[in-house]
Amino acid sequence: MTEITLSKDQKERAVEKIKSYFEEELQQDIGGFEAEFLLDFLAREIGPTFYNRGLFDAQQILNEKMEEFSYTIHELEKPEI
User: Fold this and answer.
1) Residue 73: pLDDT over 70
2) Alpha carbon separation from 53 to 2, 23, 30, 40, 73 (Å, rounded)
3) Using CA atoms, how far apart are residues 69 and 65, in angstroms rounded to an integer?
4) Domain containing 32: what range?
5) Between 43 and 1, residue with greater pLDDT
6) 74 and 52 share a domain?
7) What are phi and psi of 27, to 5 degrees?
8) pLDDT score of 1
9) Per-residue pLDDT band at 3 (split at 50, 70, 90)
10) pLDDT at position 28, please?
11) Cα 9 from chain centroid?
């Protein structure tokens, strides 16, 4: 698996969300550097768990769609003589 990377805009928005969370929920002021450091840690250490869950969910949806597709093809079959 490749490293989880965010675009500059995504990273800036995530840093702002982390800073807001710390301020609103923990009544702590953290700077952008600290928030970015935490974001990098979470992406590196916890990100793969969410990534893998996303893959699992995508696989489940694909399996369901393939089942539907198979059923649709079966409905197209013509009776044989």
Assistant:
1) yes
2) 16, 29, 30, 19, 30
3) 6
4) 7-45
5) 43
6) yes
7) 50, 40
8) 61
9) confident
10) 97
11) 17
Tell me how far apart the alpha carbons of residues 25 and 18 are, in angstroms, rounded to a whole number: 10
Tens digits of per-residue pLDDT, 7-65?
Answer: 999 999 999 999 999 999 999 999 999 999 999 999 999 999 999 999 999 999 999 99
Radius of gyration over alpha carbons of the chain, in Å?
22
| Cα distances (Å, whole numbers) of residue 17 to 33, 43, 77 | 13, 14, 54
- How many separate domains does the chain show? 2
Residues 6+ apart with CB under 8 A from 1: 48, 51
- Whether 41 and 57 share a structural domain: no
What is the secondary structure of 4-71 as a DSSP string? P---HHHHHHHHHHHHHHHHHHH-----HHHHHHHHHHHHHHTHHHHHHHHHHHHHHHHHHHHHHHHH
Domain shared by 38 and 68, yes or no? no
Is residue 41 in a domain? yes
